[in-house]
Each structure stands twice: as structure tokens, then as C-alpha cells.
């Protein structure tokens, strides 16, 4: 006879299928938490909009886009897709990409224009809801390569871009009307039957890592809030890529996954180098400006020389430390050495050229950009009409560069028809030429107004006078 344990009960073990169901519930929870984060970001964006913190509100919407991207992918990877998740995701998207951007546009630019204008914000919400409803109905039957109608996150991105570009500006009535027109256009595009690439069929691993650079550009723009300053920072990227290409050619390394990993790491290092350089120069410039010692180009040059000299030693020490860790890999042997060599080669070459060219060229470019900023600040106090003309031509030129960069980046991912490519490049070149010509025509008048003595000494040809 087997004795029973005193005062104890037999432990009841759960059947295996109960444990499996419990695990499945936890698996379903993770995508739902990401969707909840998406919804929370949309709610926070509306709170920030009420407080007038539009930059933070747009950042919250961009974070919601990242959450929206992740919840679907995580659900598919964990095999946790469900009809509940689809409906919950649509409701969260409605708040984050429909209500929040429309409310932000209304609060930012449309509330002072009357009913026809603020109805555009309501139409944005309606069309966003219809777009989500249509997407849920045709899912599973439509071609996965295309979206029918502009996706609602893309419409929200357009709304956020408008707010970022116009933030800090003294909005005139025609600017507000332009925002209303853009809002109507985006709303109608969401319920249109136009086909947009979904990029779901692309093998991103085999494509050039330009999307990494686009993410870097977005983060830098959210920090500096000035596209020109972002481009100056990113000048260090081609400087670094030049050295990586040279060293890869010298070592006879072909493009491979390991090389792309090294290039992606190099892009991050190059962007970091440009950011730190700009920070040092900015600090020196702001100190002199707060002391009232910035009057003309010579004062800007002195300030930037001070900032650049402060950066030389930290820059050289950083590069030396990185090279000390990477150069030995070029002579490595053993298991995995061939992969490590191809990862280290672009970084070694890029660090050398980036260190030299960044210290020489970025301060010069940044100096002349600061001179234009100072010119605009002085003109604002003397002739408002002239300042508006300068801004218009600068924006025309900026639109051309934006179209050119967008077209060039799209060629890496989308097979555009030859007429479309020709039209895009022609339009961008035309905008750049027209904007540059108009700006150069108005600029001498601004210089004569702000620095009459310097303009007379330089003897600017009369062909550029207005």
C-alpha cells in the first residue's frame, strides 16, 4: 500500500492544449499593443496641436506610422493575424492618420478661413474613413502590388509635411488657401481609383540601402527643421562614400551584402560627423551673435573658424580610434575573415576622406548659408516685399531640388516609364533654373540695401541688378 502525503493534495497539471492556448493569447497581445501605441500617438498629436506644439505633433504622427508598419509585420511573423486585429488597426489608423492630421491642419491654417476652408479638414476625415473601409473590403482580392487610392498614412504624411514646411512663417491668406487646396486634393486622392505602388513585392534586401538614408534625412529634418541645413550635414556622406569606393577598388572587392553592411554603418558615421561639426560651428556662431559681434561675412567667418578649430582635435581623435579598431580587420585571417574584411573596407576608406573633406568643405558651405540667413534677417527689417520675393524664388528652387532627389531615389525602386522620367527631370531642372535666376536677380538689391559699402567695393556687374 502506497502511503499518501500528509496534508498535501495532488497537483493538478494543466492539459497541454490549455498551455498552448495561453501562449497563443500572449502572441496575439503583442501586435495589439503596437496598434494601441499607434492610437496613443494619434491622441497625443491632438493634445500637442491644441497647445500649438506642431513640430511635436507631427513627430507623434510619424511615430504612429512606424507603429502601424510594425504591428502588421509582427502579426504576420508570429502568425497571429486575426479579424479583430484588422478592425482594431483600422480604427487606430482612423484616429492617428485621419482625425489627428485633419485637426492639426484646421488648428494650424484653416480655422480663420470660414466654412469652405475648414470643411476641407472634415472632408479629409470622411475620405480617410472611406479609404480604410474600402481597403478592408477588397483585402484578399485586390492586386497586392498596388494600393487603390492614396493610403491614409501617406495622406497624413502630406499633411505633416505641410505643417513642418510652413511652421514659423507668418501665414498670409493665400498660404492658408493653398493649404486648404492641398487638403481637398489629398482627400480626393484617398477615395480615387488611382493605383499606387505598395512596395510589398520588392526584395528590399537586394535593393540599394537608400531607405536607410531617407530615414536619416527624416530624423535630421525633425531635429534641424531646415532642409538646407540637413543637406549641408549630409555633405559628409558623399565625402565618405568617395573614400569607400576608392578603397574597394584598390582591394578589388565586389559589391556584396557584407559591403552594403559596411556602407550603411559608414552613412551613420558620416552623418554623425557632419552633425557634430555643425554643432560646434553653431555654438561659436550663437555666442558671437548674442554678444552682437555678427555684422557681415567677415564676422561669420571668424565665428566658424573658431568652431572648426575646436572640432579638429576631437575629430582626429575619433577617426584615429575608429581606424585603430578597423584597420587590423583588413589583414585578418581565419573563420569569417573574408566577411569582416568587406565590412571594414568601406568604413576605413570613408573615414579617411570624410575626416579631411568635412573639416575643409562643410565650414565653407555653412558660412555662405549663414550669410544668406543674415541677409534675410536684415532685409526683413528694411524691405518686406524684397524678402518675400527672395523667399518665393528660394522655394521654387527648393521644389526643383526636391523633385530631382525624389525622382532619382524612386529610380532605385520603381521602373518608371521613359516619358515620366524625362518629364520629372525636365521639370526639376526648369524649377531649379528659374528659381536660381530669380534669386540672383533680386539678391544684389538686397545686398546693396544691407551692406552698401561692401557692395560698392566688390563692383557687382549691373547685369544682375534689378
Element layout with pairings:
Blueprint: H1 16-50, H2 54-77, H3 83-110, H4 115-138, E1 146-148, H5 152-166, H6 173-190, E2 195-197, H7 210-224, H8 227-233, H9 236-251, H10 257-290, H11 297-326, H12 337-382, H13 384-410, H14 418-450, H15 452-458
Antiparallel strand pairs: 1-2
The count of β-strands is 2
Query: Class by helix and strand content?
Result: mainly alpha
Any low-confidence stretches, pLDDT <50, length ≥5? Answer: 16-23, 459-466
Total helices: the number is: 15
- CATH class placement of the largest domain: Mainly Alpha
Oligomer: single chain
CATH architecture of the largest domain: Up-down Bundle
Q: Overall pLDDT, averaged?
A: 78
Q: Tell me the distance between the termini.
A: 114 Å
H-E string? HHHHEHHEHHHHHHHHH
> Tell me, what's the shape?
globular
- The spatial strand order of the largest sheet comes to 1-2
Short description:
The protein is an all-alpha fold. It has 15 helices and two strands. It has a two-stranded antiparallel ribbon.
Walk me through this protein's architecture:
- The protein contains 15 helices and two strands.
- The chain has three domains: about 25-200, Four Helix Bundle (Hemerythrin (Met), subunit A) (Up-down Bundle); about 210-380, Multidrug efflux transporter AcrB transmembrane fold; about 385-465.
- The longest helix has about 45 residues, at about 335-380.
- The protein has about 475 residues and is mainly alpha-helical.
- Helix 8 packs antiparallel against helix 12 (about 335-380).
- The chain has helices at about 15-50, 55-75, 85-110, 115-140, 150-165, 175-190, 210-225, 225-235, 235-250, 255-290, 295-325, 335-380, 385-410, 420-450, 450-460; strands spanning about 145-150, 195.
